[in-house]
Amino acid sequence: MPDLAMLDYFYGDEAEQFTFYRIPKVLFTDPSYRRISSDAKILYGLMLDHMGLSVRNGWLDEYNRVFIFFILRMLGIFVLRAYQSRFLLGN
Q: Does the pLDDT value for residue 61 go beyond 80?
């Protein structure tokens, strides 16, 4: 029987802990992408996440291609967090 504490509701911002970035599986399974670093694949996932925001804001060119705006400072924050996690976990 599951622990009843595990079945509690989520409150306020707690629901945000279960948001995810999508990274296409092909980046890990297709040999063509073998030489691309894991960090680059994660960056691609971050950019895909921002693509939805770009579409909602109508950031398209004359050919209907989506512009992805990603502030480099924000990228630095994501990368810093990733490396801090590696350091703290000893990986």
A: yes
The number of domains in the chain is: 1
pLDDT for position 63: 95
Owning domain of residue 20: 4-89
This prediction has a pTM of 0.61
* 28, 43 contact by CB (below 8 A): no
The three-state (H, E, C) secondary structure of the chain, written as one string: CCCHHHHCCCCHHHHHHHCCCCCCCHHHHCHHHCCCCHHHHHHHHHHHHHHHHHHHCCCECCCCCECCCCCHHHHHHHHHHHHHHHHHHCC
